[in-house]
Amino acid sequence: MPETGPQNPSLLRLRLVLGDRVLMGPGKAQLLDLIRETGSISAAGRAMSMSYKRAWSLVDEMNAGFSEPLVESTRGGPGGGGARITEAGEAVLHHYRGLIEAAQSGGAADLAAIEGRLARVVSDEK
Amino acid sequence: MPETGPQNPSLLRLRLVLGDRVLMGPGKAQLLDLIRETGSISAAGRAMSMSYKRAWSLVDEMNAGFSEPLVESTRGGPGGGGARITEAGEAVLHHYRGLIEAAQSGGAADLAAIEGRLARVVSDEK
Fold this sequence. Notes:
The first copy, chain A, is an alpha+beta fold. Chain A contains 5 helices and 4 strands, in the order E-E-H-H-H-E-E-H-H. The first copy, chain A, starts with 11 loop residues before the first strand and ends in an 11-residue tail after the last helix.
């Protein structure tokens, strides 16, 4: 059996790309989860070791790509800003994860075949 | 209907990632196709507007990730080097594309739902 290890539940990473813009991907999906959890874009970004600016930029990219914003927010100010995932945001996340599940279930044999060909010893040293 | 346009047959991009290393993805798969076509890593790289060094680096990454090399080559020299896709390379490509098909067929409804929420007017100006 290949040693893909417990930290590697799946090799699969899925992105939704339009032209040169990534509309959704593993990082953006995690950011949405964390915004839902924390109610704050900057707190969500911090949880991903991401700058305030970077987190906002990812949210802006997502919001610009869809007909309705995925995240609604009030920017900073003395009391701090709040943020929430919209119905559109929840729907896009849901369908993004549906796609991943479709690839993992329908493509299970392909994924297993590839995993069986991975190098057995993978050095993480650099 | 969303205007995804003829240049956007699918939003879907799929990568196979181990740790921080991309073992296979759209660019590497295209490079393999072009190596098969041209019999040369540098010619394949040129066809993708990629430097000789970059093309070799992608091949080295792929070869290091699997138990058998995906590309066999003889490096440059006066007569130029030749390269071919190995049986392992063809198998990995085949199963990578099987995964994409699984996501696109099994996830067709999810993909359509996301496409239905794309911004209708996408500006490519910058």
